[in-house]
Amino acid sequence: MHTTASAPPSFLATMDAKLITALLVLSAIYTSATANTAFDPCTSQRDDADLTVIPIYGKCSPFDAPKTESWINTVIDMASKDPERVKYLSTLVSQKSVSSAPIASGQAFNIGNYVVRATLGTPGQLMFMVLDTSSDEAWVPCSGCLGCSATTFSPKTSITYGSLDCSVPQCSQVRGLSCTATGTGACSFNQSYADSSFSATLVQDSLKLAADVIPNYAFGCISAISGGSIPAQGLLGLGRGPLSLLSQSGSLYSGVFSYCLPSFKSYYFSGSLKLGPVGQPKSIRTTPLLRNPHRPSLYYVNLTGVSVGRTLVPLPGDLLAFNPNTGAGTIIDSGTVITRFVEPVYNAIRDEFRKQVKGPFSSLGAFDTCFIKTYETLAPTITLHFTGLDLTLPLENSLIHSSSGTLACLAMAAAPNNVNSALNVIANLQQQNLRILFDTVNNRVGIARELCN
Ligand SMILES: *[C@@H]1O[C@H](CO)[C@@H](O)[C@H](O)[C@H]1NC(C)=O
Ligand SMILES: *[C@@H]1O[C@H](CO)[C@@H](O)[C@H](O)[C@H]1NC(C)=O
């Protein structure tokens, strides 16, 4: 576990004064609390609390940030994986038809930006699992896994563990299945995840999230991985297809959850995941949740337009339109770092933005519209228009600053254009300090401002 002292010094150097103050206050609390025992914001989840959503490179995460000089470079590094993810999202098809995947060389770090504490088995084994709203299945590395890191789930030490064979109904819902027609033997499957792949068998055991125990949860027990994008301690799928948390928890969560992602800069803070209808915001603006039968895991919404300042950007309607036949449209995703629009849409938004801010403009990583921070006061707000809901992004959610603090950049980019359908992805950076509510029973997505940290 990290201690306060383990924060890289360069990271501290680039944090703003407010955060440093927060940090000093926190370490003061920590010091005085340890004197009369027990206050550590990273100790285990209180049973009655919402589930804590931990930024993967935050203080309460066991994962080390890539070695870069500043957090913006960490963001740029993370965002450099977005094109792979967007390609993966836009090629996700219904169950069974995809098996294994092209394998790329190992990358330095994982896709998946937020983790939650989950325990598997009896007695419980703690795993920091990546939260992924665009996947259904859960999977974890199991003991003996080839190519996995040290933390694995040990089926042998759990008294509630069970194997599943090819004949069980859950097995037919897995992508990349390798069961033979006769339907006996272990339910083995191979799957791709972004630019990596893994081999696993479907098994079951108790899954515990905060105080909730879901018995006989079916998940993949990974025996081998290739590529560097497989989350080191597994993944929890919050998608809407079969085998997702919502599907396997039955009436426990009534098809409802929400999350609030903390600010990107808040190394010391976490957000929350509320599962089930209890405690959700009572009044929240909503937009219809759309279903695409070819991509049953994804949360589609109807993005009808984008405004930059007071200007509604002229966009050809067919570039935004939801099309269940091609998969085109707009999704809300928890694993892409910066919002990606199909290229002509992004270019139109960017050009209007540039018109209203003073150049010259330069590039920084994925960001092609960086300008001198002094002109930030001219920066127009970005409003995403959804059916029945306009979301005006706070500046923190539309601009990002260079580590030297001299540049501000429009924190969005074009989607890779070599994909087979026009998919726009509303990503993490644009979701900071918002509560996003997914109600799969009433088919709506709610969005409300909330300080999640
Ligand atoms: C799954 O991957 C393993 C290891 O790479 C390989 O031996 C096996 O043939 C693959 N199975 C399928 C169905 O692709
Ligand atoms: C999305 O919004 C547009 C514009 O209001 C409307 O014409 C279209 O029918 C909507 N699509 C869906 C799937 O609701």
In total, how many domains does the architecture comprise?
2
What shape does the CA trace take?
Answer: globular
**Count of DSSP-assigned helices:** 6
Sketch the major β-sheet. 14 strands, mixed
User: Which oligomerization state do the chains in this entry correspond to?
Assistant: single chain
CATH 2nd-level architecture of the largest domain: Beta Barrel
Q: State the CATH topology of the largest domain.
A: Cathepsin D, subunit A, domain 1
CATH superfamily of the largest domain: Acid Proteases
Unreliable stretches (pLDDT < 50, length at least 5) are 1-38, 93-110
CATH class of the largest domain: Mainly Beta
The ligands bound in this entry are: 2-acetamido-2-deoxy-beta-D-glucopyranose
Q: Specify Rg, calculated over alpha carbons.
A: 22 Å
Number of strands: 27
Determine the strand fraction and express it as a percent band. 25-35%
Detail the topology: elements first, then pairings.
Elements (H helix, E strand, L loop, with lengths): L8 H6 L2 H19 L15 E5 L15 H9 L2 H10 L22 E7 L4 E8 L6 E8 L15 E2 L24 E6 L2 E14 L2 E15 L8 E3 L7 H4 L7 E5 L10 E5 L9 E4 L11 E2 L1 E6 L2 E2 L16 E4 L6 E3 L1 H14 L5 E3 L2 E6 L9 E5 L2 E4 L6 E3 L5 E4 L1 E3 L8 E4 L7 E6 L4 E6 L4
Parallel strand pairs: 3-9, 4-8, 16-25, 17-24
Antiparallel strand pairs: 1-2, 1-11, 2-3, 2-7, 5-7, 6-7, 7-8, 10-11, 10-26, 12-27, 13-16, 14-15, 14-20, 18-19, 19-23, 20-21, 22-23, 26-27
Bound molecules: 2-acetamido-2-deoxy-beta-D-glucopyranose (NAG) (2 copies).
